[in-house]
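SEVERITY: medium
COMPONENT: batch folding queue
REPORTER: lab tech (J.R.)

DESCRIPTION
The queue accepted two submissions in a row. Attaching both inputs and their returned structure tokens so the on-call engineer can compare them side by side.

ATTACHMENT 1
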Amino acid sequence: MAKIVFCEDSPLIQKLIGLALRSTTHEVHLAADGAEGLALIERERPDLVFTDVSMPNVDGYQLADALKARPDLAHIPIIIMTASGDQEQLAEGSRHGAAGYFAKPFAAADLRAKVDELACGR
């Protein structure tokens, strides 16, 4: 079982995440933006963080920078979620310390498989 924080501003995507992972043993926490996500990460100390790139207040890149700047949080793998398959955006995520990316939109089974893959690899 992994503790996972998802930072996603779309209520529809949040609902899909919840539905996709409700039957798993993973502990899932949702945040509506990067600022809320950072507070949640500080409190919960998750095993994984999934973050949307485009969010209000604090975007996914800023969240990744904030985590990587903190020695107590820098070890947490960050997965960038993006609707864009643009190579520049993916490279930008890597420059901000992201361990990988996950494409949106996604099927529930694909999200479960990705989470299980990352959670088992820890």
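ATTACHMENT 2
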Amino acid sequence: MEAGFAYPPILLKGLPVTMPAEGALCIELKEGIPFLRASLYVQQRIETLLIKNREFGLSESEKEELDRYEEIDDYLSFINRIIRNLYKSE
């Protein structure tokens, strides 16, 4: 692994059916370091699912969709930690 960091590979089970093929991610700079985050559209879809879950519950397909978004969030957090650690190690 690069820079002495050992990270286990993360495999996604799939992508949410509502996730757009383009425009799903944004890059934002924090102290000059690029970080990946979900686009406004994806954030709004997640919020819609969370509200619906609290108020009415979700169908099985919506539960799976929310699970896929959660996996992507974990994956982006993982990637951002690697990026941050690489910059800190330099």
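NOTES FROM REPORTER
The chain has one domain: 28-90.
No errors were logged for either attachment.
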